[in-house]
Amino acid sequence: MRHRTLTLIIVLELYALFLTVLRALQGIRTDEAKYLLDIAYPHPPVLRTFMGLTAHLPGHEFVWRFIFASVLVQMVWFFVDIGGVLTPARRRALLLAWLFSTAVLLQAGSVMMMIPVACFCVVLLWYILRQESITANQTGLIGIGWTIALFTSYQSVLLFPLVVSAMLRSRQPITRTIILVVVPILLLILYTFTNPLILASMLDIAGQGSSAASPVADRAISTALVLLLGGSAVLVLTGLIGIVTSRRLDLVLTFALLLGYTAISSQQYYAILFTPLLVAGTYLLLCRRKLRPSFLALAHVVTAFFAAWMFWYGGDRPLEARATIRALTEIRSEGAILIDGPFGHEWQYEAGDQEIIRFTETLSLQAEERADAFVCTAHDCSEHVDTDIWVRLQSTPIPTWVRRTPL
Amino acid sequence: MISVILPTYNEAANIVTMIDFLDGVLKDQPHEIIVVDDDSPDGTWKVAESARTKYSSLRVMRRRHTKGLSSAVVDGFDMAVGDVLVVMDADGQHDPDLLPKVLAAIDSGASIAIGSRYVEGGSVGEWVRDRRIISNIGTFFARMLSRVPVSDPLGGFFAIRRSLYRSVRSHLQPVGFKILLEILAFVPSQTRLHEVPLRFRMRQHGTSKLSLGVHAAFVYQVLRLLLLQIPQFLQRHAYGVFLIMTIGIALASIARITALLPLRDSAIRSKVQTALQEIAQKQGWLLSDIHILSVDETHAKIMHQAHRRSRVSPERCTVQYDPPSLACDTAL
Q: N or C: which end of chain B has fewer CB within 10 A?
């Protein structure tokens, strides 16, 4: 390996480490905890299984964050290869477009399934933009990747046009293409029916979607925001122009699918799904138009950092779970934790070895007696807390009680 | 020029006879015979050294700090100056009379020629049944690792063009006994290989070096090569892997769905839902910790596993619908 390449890999790893630390400092979010603990739905099992198997290891959360950040950042090498036909200055602009897009700045280091989907998208774009034709064996590899991607995250299905486009670049029989593209989707549908709770949770999530019942104008604004976070104001512009003027049906369809999906289920973490397409669009534009690459790169980086600063993740108070559990650990409260009110999976993750029991009106005495801490995430828990038994801790961000007489 | 490598360990009783045979067979062509000895306690290297006065083509390497058949072969190959490199056992199990046929195969264009026990005319001789079985299993796995079709990738008698050896040298990790397998795992797939029938003979003197350690080294070698070849294997057999993967997923999913088929009935579905919610509320369980295994008209089997960072054994439980009740086995 050349010395320069090795140095670049190390620099990129340091960058990934930096983004990981930034992310880790914000605490673990409910979705991240869900994957890290291999909780069964809504996403299919491939990646989360590995995360669950390693959950008991020290540094589990940080290591997975770093793996995700590393892979995402190192995807830049695919763009190095894609941009091989460009002048060095243009290629540099392309690489900066990826590395300093708002989504990479904000999402590298998060353990979200959109990251592997975005990475698979980059690989597909590499096949499409770089390879003139691909062999039958390579289509088999894409088929395997497609299956793994689908069984990692349902959102992978949005890459369908890119998968078809990549497959069509080989001269294999059409029946084989159909098998490689369609069978994994059918299998995913089959898998979905193996656990009725998957479907139930999907319907539940769809019902809770922030934009599901909001006016069209609100949806358009939130979709535009996600798109903006996918790159930067500049990258969105160059990417969109590049995609549209290239008249590439595969890119246009994938972009439209992503946009449509984001309009229905607007989540900021979908932003990273747009990034590969926006960078690819910018590449197509750089191939044809006389843009000043240094100006483009500078404008992109400035606007991306500005957007990242503006939308730096405040979160759904994930550090509260960590601080509360830490306070309980400090007073050696090691029994089960009873939680009254809504709570996310981060409580399960942060609790480590401690059991989490959901408080309900009909909770059995046996279950209640296993707990030696009572956490109130509801608006008011005073009705459920017997102060003869429980004493309030003062140092926790969430109202917390422990038994007067420890178990 | 031909370089014949004889890796030795405690072959003092065999070595001179072997050198004499080889020198006779190769007398009409430029050659060198290199004895690579792992500092044998029986003084094999000393016996070979003393034979140098009689055989001018003989060279001896005494390895004081390194041991192992494969590394001895590689050291011998590295030391050799011939265009064709040959390796064979020094204990008489490989018939030196076969050498001209092996060299003829190289002359006729092959890049590797192997003395093979498993082609027509070859045999493993008087091996006991257990050794035959172990050899067959090992050969089966080794064939999968070879980049060129071969019937006996574990043979110890072969010739290779120096140029081909140089091209794979950087990949070789000479551990254990099977250097040919190591080479075959890295040669280009279009390499021309020829196999010459070999009848394995009983050793003339001394004892066999086969041991549990040798088998363990072979297993390690196979696993290591297998790991290294996964990317290439995937590239070559991607469609097959895809089909196996999808069929596996389909079968597993169908088996699960079959157990849940009663849920098609909305009345049963409603009963399951009510019972599960009631039980989860009573137990303080999170619904995400419940996995439905099978459903019947009167009860459902579920698995409850609390998701925590520490490993928690799942409980297998039966949920009765009417009235909702729960009975759990001990943790699985």
A: C
